[in-house]
Amino acid sequence: QAVVDFERLSEHAAAFKGHDVGFCCLGTTRAKAGTAGFVRVDRDYVAQAAALAQAGGCKHFILQSSQGANQHSHFLYLRVKGEVENLVQAVGFDRCTILRPAVLLCKRQESRPAEWMAQQFLGIVARVFPTAYSVPVETVARAMVATVLQPGEGKVEVLENGAIHKLGKA
């Protein structure tokens, strides 16, 4: 485990060397970091880390993005997620897997009242429609690992929420 300063990520290039596979789940919220901070963390830091990983020998990069990611979206969150997907793909990994989970079901240490209410509601909906609107973070993690253990379906593979559920339970 290496602790890096993302504001000076290029100074930590050695931490990204010698790894065949890279996993990225980096992200913040606009409420926590402000608009500029959100873009810096969710797009710029991720793209920079991907470039350093590829330069360090990483062959397969797995990125957790978001359902609805689209570089042309009018919503900042979805637009930034779409932009970073394109930036990571452009790095040129032998294999790139992008996971687009729906609302992540998890317990957080920090207070996010609106998200908590959404999770409570979606937890109930998930009993009827288990793969439609949400996914437990443990399922996403298992799906990320499973992508490494299975042969890829092309240079870039995008897994939507239903595929994440299926792969995360395999």
UniProtKB/TrEMBL annotation:
It holds the Pfam family NAD_binding_10. One of its GO terms (molecular function) is catalytic activity. Residues 4-150 form the NAD(P)-binding domain. GO terms for biological process: import into nucleus. GO terms for cellular component: cytoplasm. PANTHER family: OXIDOREDUCTASE HTATIP2. Monomer. Forms homodimers during oxidative stress. Interacts (via N-terminus) with elongation factor EEF1A1 (via middle-region); the interaction is direct and competes with EEF1A1 binding to guanyl-nucleotide exchange factor EEF1B2, thereby inhibiting GDP for GTP exchange and reactivation of EEF1A1. Interacts with nuclear transport receptors XPO4, IPO5/RANBP5, IPO7, IPO9 and KPNB1 as well as GCN1L1/GCN1 and LRPPRC probably through their HEAT repeats. Binds NCOA5/CIA. This is Protein HTATIP2. The lineage of its organism: Eukaryota, Metazoa, Chordata, Craniata, Vertebrata. The gene is Htatip2.
